[in-house]
Amino acid sequence: MAIKSxxxxxxxxxxxxxxxxxxxxxxxxxxxxxxxxQHGPHLPxxxxxxxVDEIICxxxxxxxxxxxxxxxxxxxxxxxxxxxxxxxxxxxxxNLINLIIKEVGVQLAEMGFKRLILINAHGGQIxxxxxxxxxxxxxxxxxxxxxxxxxxxxxxxSETLTSNEIKHGLHASLAETxxxxxxxxxxxxxxxxxxxxxxxxxxxxxxxxSAPNAWLTSDLSKSGVIGDSRGxxxxxxxxxxxxxxxxxxxxxxxxxxxxxxx
Length: 262
Ligand SMILES: [Zn+2]
Known about the structure:
The chain is of the alpha/beta class.
């Protein structure tokens, strides 16, 4: 008879195991969010979902099994109306995603879980997850919620990527192409588009950042890429993979060793 291993996946537990886990001090669920949306002619639709799923699985492998954190199944389909018109993009409405987060969150809180980390890899749904988290907190006040973006706050990105990518690389360009080459090279096609650069943006305004614009991909690109994917490499991808794993490992361990925020 095989001896049962301790899974990092919530859905591989039995109900008595969940009951015991939820009661533990600092019991935490991490729920990855991605998207099924066009990522240019060379990357798969699930690029964001694959990134967050792979990185969080690697991080959880490094965390000692007695630390009470488990991963919910990655939410593959997200909120991607900006990519409408490119075949393969499937978006849920913002209302539906808001509802999914609240319905699942309330049930986790009822089981007794203390924290929920929403770790998201799709830039187009950052504000949506922030809003849903705030609403969930108000109906489940005992659940601490952390809506995080996979690429935010990661040290070393500016040394690993070109300044061109930092400035213009919004979608399916150097960083994402390189990371996919490191994680699932068999899913990366040959094309390396460069689009959406050299826009005539008035001083102080931008696509993203402090004075942003609610852009649609079709405003900026025919291929679906926004930025320059030329120069992508597995070497850059491996560095990004390391930086992301190290960053999220550190953050999650720091949180699990702390009573923050209550
Ligand atoms: Zn992406």
